[in-house]
Amino acid sequence: MNLLIMGAPGGGKGTQAEILAKALSIPTISTGAMLRNVIALKAELGNQAKKYIDSGNLVPDGVITGIVIDRLKEQDCKDGYILDGFPRTLKQAESLETAGIQIDNAIVLKVTDEEIINRVVGRRVCSKCGATYHISYNPSKVEGVCDVCSAQLITRDDDNTKTVRHRLATYHSQTEPVINFYAKRDKLIVVEGIGSVEEISQKLLSALGV
Ligand code: AMP
């Protein structure tokens, strides 16, 4: 099954993508995580990407699209995958189609802007494996320590109120048109992203007929 998950930043798409990927035994391809890995290498491309990300803007289509299309050709994607955070513009969605990449379903997690701002301020990510937590909704077992790999949890540089407001504006203007793109192709599944992590993943799995 080839899936993608969309939704406003901090709306829980990364967490839900991981759960779906486990349930369906397919890999998660997260463009945000891929970009953060490039940044950690401290090479020129990473330094450029960091500027866009920290200011709440999208990395240019030309930088991210080729990386994603190459990644989807790898062996572990042959039985399906879940794209988390791609496409984020109409141009990216069109590029997937032009490359002959078929998406079975595009999932949209619907969360209000106010709720997003509350959530993002409490989000923590693992500095090593990228697992995500929330200090109230999805806390790690030991405060500040990753359940998966025991590394330290950190707050992302772009998870502050000012940047999040800008990321939300970017989402509304550039990413929301992509919802319509998949609606027109009859691929859209819209789920309210409100409730516990488990409740939302149950809703998603039943919408997918799993
Ligand atoms: P995320 O972890 O999905 O919230 O992504 C973090 C940041 O990475 C975004 O705010 C963008 O700056 C950048 N990014 C991730 N995916 C994309 C994409 N498909 N196109 C452009 N920029 C992206």
Overview features:
binds adenosine monophosphate; about 210 residues; alpha/beta; 8 helices; 8 strands; five-stranded parallel β-sheet
Explained architecture:
The structure is a single chain. By secondary structure, the chain is of the alpha/beta class. It is built from 8 helices and 8 strands. It has a 5-stranded parallel sheet with strand order 2-3-1-4-8, with helices on both faces. It has a 3-stranded antiparallel sheet with strand order 6-5-7. Bound molecules: adenosine monophosphate.
List the helices and strands and how they pair.
Blueprint: E1 2-7, H1 13-24, E2 28-30, H2 31-40, H3 44-54, H4 61-72, E3 81-84, H5 90-98, E4 105-110, H6 113-121, E5 123-126, E6 132-134, E7 153-154, H7 161-184, E8 188-192, H8 197-207
Adenosine monophosphate binds at residues 9, 31-32, 35, 52-53, 57-59, 64, 85-86, 88, 92, 167.
